[in-house]
Amino acid sequence: MSIAWESNLLSSGVSKDLAKLIPEIIDTCKQEGLDPFDLVIEEFNADEIAEIAAYGGFPVRYPHFSFGQQYEQLHHQYHTGQGKIYEMVVNNDPTYMYLQRNNPLVDNLTVVAHALAHSDFFKNNIMFKHTNRNMMNIFANHGQKIRKYIDLYGYNTVMNFVDACLSIDDLIDPASGWKVTEFDKPSKVEFDDLPEVERLEKIQTNDYMDQFVNTSDHKMKQRRIRREEKKHTRKTFPKSPQRDVLMHVLKYIPMEQWKQNVLSMIRDEAMYYYPQIVTKVMNEGWASYWDSYIMATKGYAGDEGIFSYAKHHAGVLGGKNNMGNPYKLGVSLFNDIKERWDKGRHGREWEHCEMMDKKRKWNNNQNRGREKIFEVREFYHDYTFINEFFTQDFCEKYEFFEYGLDREKNEYVITSRDHENIKRKLLKRHENGGRPIINLENLKYKGGNEILLRHQFDGLPLDSKYVENTLKMFYKIVHRPVNIKTIAVDVTQTTKYWNKPGTTGSFFGMNHNSTTTNETDRTPVIYKFDGSRFTRVKDERSIREAHRSGEDI
Amino acid sequence: MSGRRIRDDHKRYHDIIRDKVKHKLKDHIKSGKKITRRGKDYVVVDIPVIDLPKFKHGDPYHEGVGSGEGKKGDKVKDGPPLEGSEPGSPGDDTGEHTMGVGVPLDSYVDILGEELRLPKLKPKSNSKIIRPKIKYDKIAKVGNPSLVHKKRTLKNVIKRAIASETYTPDNISDLYPVPEDFEYRSWSEKDYPDVNAVIFFMQDISASMGPDKRELVRELCWYLECWIKRFYKQTDIKYMVHDVEAFEVDSEKFYSYTSGGGTKISSVFELCNNVIDSSYPADEWNIYCFYLSDGENWGDDNEVCINYIKQMQQSCNVIGVTEVKGMSDWAEFVIDVDEAIDTDVLDSDIVVTGSVNDHRDILSTLKGFLNVSIS
């Protein structure tokens, strides 16, 4: 490790004070149990770091205006004092981290501790197990290739295609890292020549019984079933809904070679970023936990520095009531877990304890907190993290609430503090990184020329405006009509007023009560873009099916 | 870090948003909204973030989770903008997020001028200041090596070779220049008439000028300054404030000073007159004077002022007199000036009045002030 950073410290001019302290901090972190990759540290000025941040931490990427937009934003924020970048850490082996030269020494020390924890998280969290650790080079190669295509086919052609790819780059199967082999097998056979109808299923018996058991009636019946099945299999491909839409598009939709390459590059980058999206809360929480632990207990800040550190900390985490901030939610949960496992406040006995007094003083000196948080950082991601550790006590301690829109006043107001509901909403926000889950239902829809996607409806509908534009982008890639099945939700709100008992106040006065009820109307629909028109039709079949099974949609 | 890569992407982004920015600025100007401006040479406009379309959850229920104190029914934040309240077509502005984008002041001023049909300011024709300008348009036999005129030098080498009959097309790489062959670029000086401008901002800082009026003053001054600066190479700006006495101040104090005293407008015109006489001779400078106050004055002082203005109009391009949120009972200054213009005591081609009551009036006043100067 030391060589990796020492040589780089020299070349990039990390300030001497910082350079002296970095090895110490690294040693301390390792003694505490962190297990990071090697580290390359570089210092830049504000504009340079805004550039690197705009490129997601990678010095070389493909050209795209969105990076320019990002840069504009960061640059503007910094120069108008709305925000500054403390650090940039890249999941790579060695881990690259960038510091801002103008930040105070204590800030940068904190950032080193913070980044070490990130690096540890990248290395050990299970979600990152299959990410490529050599992404610096791969991103640079992608940039090189796309630049080459720009030279060959023209800027606008290539960029329009890249835009389209980026638009659907979340239609990937995050688990495909674990089942790589499945895709390596030549599954093309499935598509090109569908498997022959197997020989009629005969009931195994001896010769004598055969004519009685396998009667001609039976054979006819078997034949009919087979025929039906065959019809069906020809109609849908893949056989079962597939999560990895992009991979199937790549494999089965004919397109030019360079387009295929671009699409697969974008897919690779999306696969690389996915774990970071679904572990944002944990990752930031873990890093914040460690930087505060190291800075507060190991005395690096010094007497005057501790104030600067506190300011930095407050700047990053915000106030108490700032749970929308992933840093804050994550670090609070980690602290809570640490405390609960230190004091043994978990398990059956604790949960069934009804005496508040006993609960308040509960401490059986288990001291397993450290062990537990390391376990958590290894095996959880945001969804499971919140699902397991967002307890009633935690919810109350940090004063969580849920809010809704009061249409009359056009204000968001607090609606309840119910733990279950809050947790459900939080989980929904973090499921699949807050993105809808969309599967590939059928590549041979409507006679084999259309594509059918299906949105896994979980209470939240798709935004139809975005659906329209995304389907248009999808069409640019596949050049055939694309459909998506989903459920549209219309909410109508009605408000009832009545006078408070015992008063005769007017309607406009203060003497009335009101209740607001949401009426939701759910309709299964299919959105379709056929190259020229975007349509929305009722999904009659799903409605019929739902009726038949007696389900509420 | 070279910074080169981001420059390409950044430029590309600005190409994409250019029309949007222009559109937005025009909207701003039409509706008379204030531009949140920052920086010395750029203004900031908010434009929607361009995000690539993705499958996204809609939000039909309008609910969410937060944390903090409060009881049921307490306000968390403002609701979404009501439908129909935002003008303009939804078009491809898919996101409701906006971000600030810096626009160079020059292009902003151009759009402003285009939109308001502001006149191009004409410098006075009788300008006497002559300033030499350097132009590289000569050839010299001596000079700095960095100024070598390579083409001519090479020609000389070939000419010499041909003259000495050592030249063949094959041995061209053997040719080399001797000191006599070298020729250098050189310059000549030419005299051009120079155009300079000076702007006088004069303001009443007596107690009746409250913070809201000061805000309007600042706004108007900014626009005037932007537009006038656009046409002159060098623009001096002088700030003067007055209550019963007048002072010359710097810009910071101009916008922040207040005084509890009374009002005597003639004091500042007297000061301005003196400054013009002493340091800005009319045949060398284009002079723009703007007076801003709420129009309250000591009754018989108005006469004195009009006399001074009469004196000043000999030398000035424009004299603008503005009433900021004037109260009709007391504010007679502008009325008196108007009367003087009507009765041809003052020259209506140079002296102009305006009144500003809120932000929407600023641009029309600006237009009024500047339109005079074309005739």
In short:
The complex is a heterodimer of chains A (553) and B (375). Chain A has 25 helices and ten strands.
What features would you describe in this structure?
- The complex is a heterodimer of chains A (553) and B (375).
- By secondary structure, chain A is α+β, with helices and mostly antiparallel strands.
- Among the domains of chain A are: 2-125 and 279-306; 318-428, no CATH class; 436-548, no CATH class.
- Chain A has 25 helices and ten strands.
- Chain A has helices at residues 2-12, 16-31, 46-54, 65-79, 105-124, 135-153, 155-167, 180-184, 188-192, 207-213, 216-235, 245-252, 257-278, 280-297, 302-317, 326-342, 347-352, 356-361, 369-379, 382-389, 392-397, 419-430, 445-448, 464-478, 540-548; strands at 39-44, 87-90, 95-100, 400-406, 411-416, 438-444, 450-455, 482-499, 512-529, 534-538.
- In chain A, a hairpin with a 4-residue loop joins strand 9 (512-529) and strand 10.
- Chain B folds into three domains: 1-52 and 93-117, no CATH class; 130-191, no CATH class; 196-374, Rossmann fold (3-Layer(aba) Sandwich).
- Chain B contains nine helices and twelve strands.
- In chain B, helix 1 (4-31) runs parallel beside helix 2, helix 4 (211-229) packs parallel to helix 9 and helix 6 packs parallel to helix 7 (301-312).
- Strand 4 (400-406) of chain A pairs antiparallel with strand 2 of chain B.
